[in-house]
Design brief:
By secondary structure, the chain is α+β, with helices and mostly antiparallel strands. About 20% of the residues lie in helices and about 40% in strands.
C-alpha cells in the first residue's frame, strides 16, 4: 500500500493577526496530464494534498514498466486554508479550478472523515477492490464496515451487479464502490 500524507486534524489555524482561519480539504479540477507536475510543486512547497493514483504496468519494446497514473483524471485535493488555496494557481503557474457548491457558489470543503475513507478506499484499489461509479445512485442505508480490509469505512449500502457494496461519496465529485461485502461485515449507523 502506498503511504499518503497524514491528515492534519487541526481544523483551525491562527493567522498572524489572531483571526481563526478554517482549513479543510478542497477539491479541484486541473488540466489533463498536469497532476504530477502540480503534485511535485505542492510537495516542494510543503502543501498537503492528495491525488488519487493507480499503478499501471505497460510493455514497451518487450520491457515492462510500472508508473503511476491518475485514477480519476484531472482531479486533486488540497488541504489548506482558503487564502492559501486561492493563491495556488498563481504560485504554481497552473490552472486550478476549485469545485463549488451549486447553490451557494462557495468553495466545497470535504469533511475529514469522508476524505479519510476516500483515501483509504483509493489506497485499497491497488488490489482491485473498488469500482468508480459516475451514475447517480439511489441513496441507501448508512453503514459501517466492521471487519475485513475495508474495516472502519463508512458509506451507503447499495447493490451493484447484484452484490452488496459500500459506496463512499464525495458529494458532487465522485463515488467509489467497494467489492462485495458480506452482510455480517456491516453494521447500520443510526442517525
Amino acid at each position: 500500500m502506498r503511504t499518503f500524507v497524514a491528515l492534519n486534524y487541526l481544523h483551525y489555524l491562527c493567522s498572524m493577526n489572531g483571526a481563526v482561519v478554517k482549513t479543510g480539504w478542497y477539491a479541484a479540477r486541473v488540466k489533463y496530464r498536469t497532476e504530477q507536475k502540480i503534485k511535485a510543486l505542492l510537495e516542494a512547497a510543503g502543501t498537503q494534498h492528495f491525488i488519487p493514483l493507480k499503478t499501471v504496468e505497460t510493455a514497451r519494446n518487450g520491457k515492462k514498466t510500472r508508473r503511476e497514473k491518475p485514477l480519476i483524471p484531472c482531479l486533486m485535493f488540497v488541504y489548506a486554508d482558503r487564502k492559501t488555496v486561492l493563491k495556488l494557481p498563481a504560485t504554481t503557474g497552473f490552472t486550478i479550478n476549485y469545485i463549488r457548491h451549486t447553490d451557494t457558489k462557495q468553495l466545497h470543503i470535504i469533511p475529514d472523515k469522508q476524505m479519510q475513507d476516500f483515501m483509504r478506499v483509493v489506497d485499497l484499489s491497488e488490489t482491485g477492490g473498488i469500482e468508480i461509479l459516475t451514475a447517480n445512485l439511489k441513496r441507501g442505508d448508512k453503514v459501517r464496515v466492521v471487519r475485513g480490509v475495508f474495516s472502519g469505512i463508512e458509506g451507503e449500502l447499495i447493490r451493484v451487479k447484484g452484490h452488496k457494496r459500500v459506496v463512499v461519496r464525495l458529494e458532487g465529485l465522485v463515488s467509489l464502490a467497494t467489492t462485495y461485502i458480506p452482510t455480517d461485515f456491516l453494521e447500520l449507523i443510526q442517525e
